[in-house]
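Supplementary Note 2. Why include the ligand at all?

Several targets in our set were suspected to adopt different conformations when bound, so apo predictions alone were not considered sufficient. For every target with a known small-molecule partner we therefore ran a joint prediction. The input for S-adenosylmethionine is given below.
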Amino acid sequence: MATNHDDYIHLLFGSEDPLLQEVNERIKANGMPSISVKPEVGRLLSILVKMRNPRHVLEIGALGGYSGIILAGALGKEGSLTSLELEQSYATVAHSNLEKAGLKEKVKYVIGPALQNMESLYNAGQRYDFFFIDADKVNYPAYLDMAIKLASPGAIIAADNTLQGDRVFDETIKDDNVEAIREFNLKMANDERLESIILPLCDGLTVGRVKEAE
Ligand SMILES: C[S@@+](CC[C@H](N)C(=O)[O-])C[C@H]1O[C@@H](n2cnc3c(N)ncnc32)[C@H](O)[C@@H]1O
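The joint prediction is reproduced in token form.
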């Protein structure tokens, strides 16, 4: 029996598709870190993508393709996913996992530091309707600035781990990751171009919508 809301939600909604279980097993077998999104977060991402029905999704942080399968799998016929990943070897594993899931045609991996690649995508005139930020925490504020530049009106921006194990609201904690997430959440809350909220699901998912120009 659950004794807190996290366990309760996990018991009700945390079951995992066997295909995604296999992805996490392959991530481990390849010596990669076990830091894919939790099944509950995956479920929410899938619902958000289906609600927004984006044409172009940008993921920042691919790892082994767990969230990539969820994002790409929720897309409509015309939708595509661009996934930014620092490590070539991780992107290779992710691509093979998307292929096994029958989603190879929907995804493109761009390798290297995400911030630089976001700048290049912006200069190339690419625009996106849905963002999932899940890479190095220190760059979250910069990823947000770039996501707003790359966003089409009404775009959704979702970012994982924005409660940092509840350390984010303890102002005495001076840690680079925590301080960057604090700055990120502050921007999400106060930037007039956005309407946003933190959902206290797992380690926190901040979700915002880029307003249409008035
Ligand atoms: C938490 S994992 C992503 C998990 C993935 N979203 C999932 O749930 O399946 C973070 C990923 O970000 C990548 N990463 C870290 N720093 C990066 C950077 N500067 N640019 C691009 N990717 C980066 C890491 O290599 C790692 O694969």
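The domain at 5-210 is CATH 3.40.50.150 (Rossmann fold). The helical segments are 5-13, 18-29, 39-52, 66-74, 88-100, 114-123, 140-150, 176-190. Comparable summaries for the other entries are listed in the accompanying table.
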